[in-house]
Write a structure and sequence with these properties.
Elements (H helix, E strand, L loop, with lengths): L1 H16 L7 H7 L6 H13 L30 H9 L1 E5 L7 E7 L6 E5 L7 E5 L3 H6 L7 H8 L5 E5 H7 L15 H15 L5 H11 L11
Antiparallel strand pairs: 1-2, 2-3, 4-5
């Protein structure tokens, strides 16, 4: 208990020192559910500092088909990407024995809202959706329009950029970047922005100035695994 109290005080002090405002105690406690390692945080900060900062390009020429066939089997395991992600992210997923791929049911503990969602394939399948953490339209405006078709398809199906999430939250996000949308569950925001930075760094995508500032602000609020007492 003393360790977590000291840890939370460190998080609050860092936020004030960074000029990011004072997060609530509940936000800091939630963040402890999704901690990052000191190495992960250092890498995220270094990657963020190296990203190109530029204005958002127009969406001219963008179409979902520019990123290849949706949920293509790019890893060659015989299953589409959407089912791969559902099988990875749902608890107790039930797989159709007929094809060994189709996820029929399972339970999602949604990282964006913290809600538990029962997934069942059928008319209500859209209650759980697979989100591109870095949205395809956002990627298009920040570098992907110059990629090959193969690279865009690989990006659209990269597990590092995909999460099973609450469908309504995913719809509200749209193509937003960190400056315009963040998960409503504040405790997940550090892990979320760290993933966005990792993906953008891996693919050489740019950020806007406002996006860079938002990413840095939430990295400064991260709870670090094994951080010393304050």
């Amino acid at each position: 208990m003393r360790r977590w109290t000291g840890l939370l005080l460190v998080v609050l002090a860092l936020a004030v020192a960074a000029g990011t405002g004072l997060p609530t105690w509940s936000s800091a406690r939630e963040a402890a559910d999704h901690p990052v390692t000191a190495a992960d945080l250092a890498r995220a900060r270094a990657d963020l500092a190296a990203l190109v900062v530029q204005g958002r390009a127009p969406l001219t020429g963008y179409d979902r088909s520019a990123f290849g066939t949706p949920w293509a089997d790019v890893d060659g395991n015989g299953c589409g990407t959407r089912d791969d992600v559902l099988a990875r992210d749902l608890r107790a997923p039930r797989i159709d024995p007929a094809d060994g791929c189709t996820v029929l049911s399972g339970t999602l503990l949604d990282p964006y809202t913290g809600e538990s969602i029962a997934f069942r394939r059928g008319p209500d399948s859209a209650e759980v959706q697979v989100d591109h953490v870095v949205a395809l339209a956002d990627a298009w405006q920040k570098g992907a329009q110059g990629w090959s078709e193969e690279r865009r398809e690989r990006f659209a199906n990269d597990p590092a950029n995909l999460l099973a999430v609450d469908g309504d939250a995913n719809q509200r996000k749209g193509a937003g970047d960190a400056a315009t949308w963040l998960p409503p569950r504040t405790g997940y925001r550090c892990a979320y922005v760290a993933r966005q930075v990792r993906v953008k760094a891996a693919y050489g995508l740019a950020v806007t100035a406002a996006e860079r500032d938002a990413l840095a602000r939430w990295l400064d609020r991260c709870v670090v695994v094994g951080a010393p007492e304050g």
